[in-house]
Write a structure and sequence with these properties.
Blueprint (H helix, E strand, L loop, with lengths): L2 H10 L2 E9 L2 E8 L3 H12 L5 E5 L10 H4 L6 E6 L2 E6 H9 L8 E5 L5 H9 L3
Parallel strand pairs: 3-6
Antiparallel strand pairs: 1-2, 4-5
Length: 131
């Protein structure tokens, strides 16, 4: 997109450009929401009356920002440590995502995983033992 297209998009969604910084051949834009999100969301969702039934999880990336950990293990399988009262539990990121997606409060029926071809065997192995 051009700079003008981005500016138009920001303005249409109540964001204003604070600054632009060149970085590695790209321009990083810092934007600020003019209206706090808490004032926008309740009325927006109340008007819509729609229900999310499908989720797309784009997890095919190489996880470059998570290196060196992601060189050994795809980012979806990186461990997250949880603490509840006196116990510690370590679970993969993907496990936590799926738990949140399939809670009783959601009406989600389908999940589409966008994965890299070289990671397919890992996901097949993971889901063969998934409850």
């Amino acid at each position: 997109r051009t700079r003008q297209e981005w500016d138009t998009l920001f303005l249409a969604t109540n964001w204003s450009v604070q600054s632009r910084v060149p970085f590695s051949g790209h321009t990083i834009t810092l934007a600020k929401r003019d209206t706090p999100i808490k004032d926008i969301l309740p009325s927006t969702f109340a008007r819509r009356k729609t229900c999310v039934r499908k989720v797309v999880l784009p997890i095919a990336g190489l996880g470059m920002r998570m290196r060196p950990q992601s060189t050994i293990l795809p980012k979806a399988f990186l461990p997250i440590v949880q603490s509840n009262s006196n116990a510690w539990k370590c679970r993969p990121v993907l496990d936590l995502l799926l738990k949140e997606i399939f809670t009783k409060e959601t009406d989600i029926e389908q999940v589409l995983f966008v994965i890299a071809p070289n990671q397919l065997h890992l996901f097949q192995s993971y889901f063969s033992s998934y409850p």
